[in-house]
Amino acid sequence: MNYRTYARAVIAATDLAGKLAPPPAAIDLTPADDDDTAPPPTWPGRPNNLQIVHGKFAKVPPIAGMRDPQQRARIIHALANHELQAIELFAWGLLQFRDVPVPYRRGLLAILADEQRHCQLYLDRLAAHGHQFGDFAVTGHFWNKLDDYRSPLHFSCAMGLTFENANLDFAQEYANAATEVGDLETAAVLQRVHDEEIAHVHFAWVWLQKFAPDEPAWETYIAHLDHPLGPHRARGKTFDRDARRRAGLPADFIDRLAHVEAKRPSGQPR
Ligand SMILES: [Fe+2]
Ligand SMILES: [Fe+2]
Fold this sequence. Notes:
By secondary structure, this protein is mainly α. It has one domain: Ferritin, core subunit, four-helix bundle (Ferritin), CATH 1.20.1260. The protein contains nine helices and no strands. The longest helix has 29 residues, at 152-180. The chain is globular, with a radius of gyration of 18 Å. One fe (ii) ion binds at residues 83, 86, 115, 118, 193, 197.
């Protein structure tokens, strides 16, 4: 199967099985043939109970809600939704960016497969809380930024160096909160997601350097984010310096991020 056929199927799927079907081992990553010229979908297929709604209809409890298993379920549901969108957006990136080196394409596909496993891990924890995917409303934050992903470099700056970068803090904060309330299984899942996101940030960092080898990295990063995205969205209230170091970010890049004030999508400080 060609990677484009697979990526289209993932985005179009209207059932969870289609979203979570892993890439075939023998997938063909060679550049697209010229027949497949249709642009990628700009909106995903979804089951009825996972249709994207406006954020005001899909409120997620604050982290303090981890104490209450019912609120915790809503948080886990929102985290599963982030993974679902990541799956779809990495599929979208595979379709959108035709003229990329095969190793970049291979990396996007490997991350997609990781996000599928992350999603399933959260869904297992959701089931342990008596819920299933679709029980609560979901937002489409990553899909709403489609216009920002104008090039592979823009895509990696937004997805990898901003959203996934911030998750190095969020996932750790949630893991710590789950540990504090004694939900060690949820904590273990969050810790694993946190640890695996390090490689995703690393991937984006490596390709930022390849796509813009002669430019200063921090300036390149900033220049490839559209307002209101920015480095203030690439971190949490806490700052996991060690995770960034393990992702391969250089010390000066980490320092600059450490001095940025973390902000919510609303623009309010965290
Ligand atoms: Fe993930
Ligand atoms: Fe990721």
